[in-house]
Amino acid sequence: MPNPILTPESVLCESACNSWTQPDPQGSRVTELEKGKVLYLPQLAFVLSPQELALLDVSRVDPKRKNISYNPESGRLTGIADEADRPAIEGLLARHYQSCKMLIAALLPEYQQHLHSPVNTLRLHPVTAWRKSSSWRKDDSRLHVDAFPSRPMHGERILRIFTNINPQGGSREWRIGEDFPQLARRFYPRLGGYSPLTSWLQHVVGITKRRRTRYDALMLQMHDKMKSDAQYQQQGLQLTFQFPPGSSWICFSDQTPHAAMAGQFMLEQTWQLPVLGMKHPEHSPLRVLESLAGRALL
Ligand code: AKG
Description:
Blueprint (H helix, E strand, L loop, with lengths): L7 H4 E3 L15 H5 L3 E4 L8 H4 L14 E4 L4 E3 L7 H22 L8 E8 L3 H7 L23 E8 L7 E6 L2 H8 L8 H9 L9 H15 L1 H6 L2 E6 L4 E5 L5 E5 L3 E8 L11 H9 L5
Parallel strand pairs: 1-2
Antiparallel strand pairs: 2-9, 3-4, 3-5, 5-11, 6-9, 6-11, 7-8, 7-10
Bound molecules: 2-oxoglutaric acid (AKG).
């Protein structure tokens, strides 16, 4: 039976953690996270120095980009408007990445050896600015699960840590949707086929970084069907939640339906996690979709 309503207790799991280096005082939350709950850390702030606070201005972002992104392994920083900002923004994002790494070691140590491909972002635009400028597919104020058109995941998980760093007191408002098995049962019957030839061609001509698998094709279609379905957006199961400044939250964004409705100034860290690095791989979108499809999807 689907849940008739969502409550904060059904979609979030709250932790008293207030340090980037200490384990959760209430014990491991990995099972709840893997079931698709948002691990909410209301007391985990990322404190900025006065010099870093001065970076919080939309004029620092290249007008052609949504966010400033940093790959700590290659040192590649993209999306800055002015080269003069490079050292300070790189310093902030490198420090944020180190903090997120320590948080994983403290809070989710089972993932430490498995997480790879880190990228973090500095999000300076007000969320309301996207709605005006984005196509519906790129509009993250519509409920969705993450799936990247050019970056096939081959079943790997997308783990994200978010921190509201708004110095003016504005919360980041999200809508959070139903659990993934329920979501998948709702959308799976509407998802179409898969062409290995198209997938191969898209890779060869450089549309995708590697070949899209059946899994990637289903996840992308689900992302699009969710965002383009006005009735689901308005009436689908969902809960609105405000993440205040000075709070952090963690989720598997390929599993937890989410939409950013309001807010400005955020730091975000993404990693990929192989399904076999999970404690409960059966909760992964890959395994849930495979059980609906009755076949392997990779
Ligand atoms: C996403 O990055 O997938 C989002 O939905 C945006 C979340 C946010 O910026 O609060």
